[in-house]
Amino acid sequence: MSGIFGIFVRDGAPGRLAALRGAGRLPQGRAPVFSDATAMLSQERPVEGIRDGDAAVATAGRIHNRLEIARALSLDAAMVSDHRLFTLAYARWGQGCFSRIHGDWSCACWHPAEQRLVLARDHHGNTGLYYHDAPGIFAFATARRDLLALGLAPVEMDELYLAQMLVSWRAYQGDRTIHGPIRRVPPAHALIITPDRIEVQRYWRLEDTPELRVRRDEYVEGLREIFDRAVRERLPDRGGVAATLSGGLDSGSVAVTAAQMLAGSGRRLAAYTSVPLADPSAYAVGGLGDEYALARDTARAAGTIDLHRIDAASVSPIQAIRDMLDIVLEPQHAAGNFFWLLDLYRTAARAGHGVVLTGQLGNGGISWSGGIGALPWRRQISTLGMAGWARRRVRGMLPVRIEQGWRGWRNSGDFGGSAIVPDFAGRLRLSERRAADAEEAPYVSPRLERLRMLLPGRSQVGALHAEMGRAAGLSVGDPTGDARVLAFCLSVPDSVFVDPATGQSRWLIREAMKGRLPETVRLNRRMGIQAADLVPRLRACPAEVGDAIDSIAHGPAAGYVDTTRLEAAWRLLRSEDTPQAYSLAVSVLTRGIMAGLFVNGFGRSW
């Protein structure tokens, strides 16, 4: 719950920084860290006023392994703040401290004698840090709105970013934002800025994790140890702690582990579970549309979890989309989920909780299912069917160029499963460009599939949840996204994630949670479906849906978002209770509306 901001006049033009300050364009209410004629740094937290070494350091966020860092610096962790600890670590190790410090953090380090600025952010945590390299001047901020307010240069919309988001092509993940010249500092990256160059460095690569070969029981013990540490480090010494809790393994593992640790000091964990307002069974065929019963089992098994329902009755999906645009300033892929996420964070904050724990990144880490190739071939066939199994085998043996050509032919249509205007997609040559993207190739190795899910060094998920939490007035922590947890899980051979006796997936976390999670949850095979009652919720706010579609049709968004498809999806949603209706609500209607409302407000509201 903190932020940083700064400016570096790279061309040394006199008076430029003073002019911005005089025009009232700099954010107010910040503690100054450094200021002269060519550079200034500020942060929201008070600064101790002590500089160690030759750098002024501004920090935001939280250090998780503070005991380890303090010990290495011969300090008493109880006597130093996170900001002070980071400053001393940078004075000792320089940029080498970035790989050592685990947490949800971002920093700016200014070396006045060298006219050198260093920006960095955490390995894979919940943090956002943005920058604008304008002619002669460089600015950075944890809040993108602070950069837009500077008006340093015209900001154009990145049309390719918008198109990729609309069609679920993950290539927009990384350093880009939809505000063309404004970039992100991606996870595990540092930037070095001087008057004549900008250098981007990546200081941690999950992809380079070597495989670990030990006994099966040692993998279980290793996961418990490293996961417990990640949870423990995210628990504050005082104040309320909350967690999201579904009926699944990821959030359940986080919640029961945190509750067990809090109970040692007589504290309880508040858990919040999203529940439907209407029966979701028609839309969640084969999955779980209401996970409350399993979440209740988890809470009862822990014994010290206070479980709360989040029905989000007071916020419609469309209003939540509008609220999210004000928070994150760009359209999002999972637009249909924001009604319950926003209500959950707001409810937790109103209850006085300063920290909410999640299990957002478990699918590619602690609860990785094990690739289909890890199963015996008979079970592969029973899972995929003979035709699907054969197709997978053949496609996996195709040369790269033939595979790319096949994908180009397959994707040469008009992206009918999205709300993109076909002419817009054609103008960008979206099909051809996507077919040429090697990361879009199917049937990759299980290891690459996991890396695709996690997107190390590129993921925007942490920034999204950090900004949502910040808007609600709390911090969001995810032990499943801890870099050490992810590295351990990636080191585990794929076959270990599958039970050799039964073929059951997610064996490692199921085994590690024996005695913690109830058997109804630990052994459950049905997947939860988020926002499963999205269709009836949209039906309950027809005027809002209609107004949104109408505004898109009569605004600049009409050149990007196909209102004919929005209207067709809306007609089907009002008449059918089917999985297809739910799918269209997610992939076409809510995603398309969020994109369209953004375009209409671009340059004015965001």
Automatic annotation (TrEMBL):
EC main group: ligase
Domain Asparagine synthetase, chain residue ranges per copy: 223-577
Pfam families reported in the protein's UniProt record: Asn_synthase, GATase_7
Residue ranges occupied by any Glutamine amidotransferase type-2 domain in the UniProt entry: 45-148
Known EC number: 6.3.5.4
MF GO annotations: asparagine synthase (glutamine-hydrolyzing) activity; ATP binding
Keywords, alphabetical: ATP-binding, Ligase, Nucleotide-binding
InterPro entries in the cross-refs: Asn_synth_AEB (IPR006426), Asn_synthase (IPR001962), ASN_synthetase/amidase (IPR051786), GATase_2_dom (IPR017932), Ntn_hydrolases_N (IPR029055), Rossmann-like_a/b/a_fold (IPR014729)
GO terms classed as biological process: asparagine biosynthetic process
Protein family per UniProt: Belongs to the asparagine synthetase family.
Protein name per the record: Asparagine synthetase [glutamine-hydrolyzing]
The species this protein was found in: hydrothermal vent metagenome
